[in-house]
Amino acid sequence: MQRQNLTTHPDLYIARFWSKVQRCAHVQRCTRCCWPWQGGIKNNGYGEFFIGRYGDKVKMVHTHIFAWELAHGPLLLSVDVLHRCDNKPCVNDAHLYLGTQLDNARDAVERNRLQTGAQHYYHRLPGLIRRGEAIGNHKLTTADVQQAYTWRLAGGTYGEIAKKLSVSECLIGEILRGEKWQHLFPSELAEAFTLQDGRKRPRQST
Predict the structure, then answer these.
(1) Whole-angstrom Cα distance, residue 117 to residue 138?
(2) Residue 14 confidence class, pLDDT cut points 50, 70, 90
């Protein structure tokens, strides 16, 4: 089965995509240079690109996959696009090749690119990580999240806070446990929220 064909979108999307790519001045298909994506970067280090809105949902795609399909056509669902250059933001299709998720995991181990600590993209590219209101399909604002912290400290339940903000109780739980909007989560509130919840908070990702 094929993935959705990303290249059927209007030329406007394709032009906007290339406007956010830093291409070298060499030949059109340079095998030497990386072409780094200059737009938003996901938490996993890959670039992401907005290709439209479907109803109330925002459609985002990985930029290296979009670049591959522009050059070679639609992919099968069982196939992934991997990087020869080990540079996740790179969208030069000459640096990309097809493989499986198992191939990708094996490459990560063999090439020692399982990034943690100071090498993680959160630390290496902080300005490009999309957080909070910078995410296209965000449901709350920074002010909403900070208000949720205040209401929780005042004894409000997940359900009460969710109703006030017109979102799901599940989302409020994730926010108040520091699983979402982590960049706003005040560390000094962790113990207070833990005592209120009566359980340990999950360890935050790096």
Answers:
(1) 27
(2) confident
* Structure token pair of residue 136: 């296209």
CB within 8 A of 146, min separation 6: which ones?
Answer: 184
| Other C-beta atoms lying within 10 Å of the C-beta of residue 99 | 14
Asked if pLDDT for residue 116 goes beyond 60, the answer is: no
Identify whether the C-beta of residue 201 lies closer than 8 Å to the C-beta of residue 178: yes
Determine phi and psi for 177, rounding to 5 degrees. Answer: -95, 0
| Helix, strand counts (H, E) of the chain | 8, 4
Query: Which range is least confidently modeled, 57-66, 127-136, 143-152, 165-174?
Result: 127-136
∠ at Cα 90 (9, 19), nearest 5°? Answer: 50
- Decide: helix, strand or coil at residue 10: coil
103 with 36: CB under 8 angstroms? no
Q: Are 58 and 50 in contact (CB under 8 A)?
A: yes
Q: At 167, phi and psi to the nearest 5?
A: -135, 175
DSSP type of residue 202: P
**Spatial contact of 172 and 162, defined as CB atoms under 8 Å apart:** yes
3-class state of residue 57 by DSSP = strand
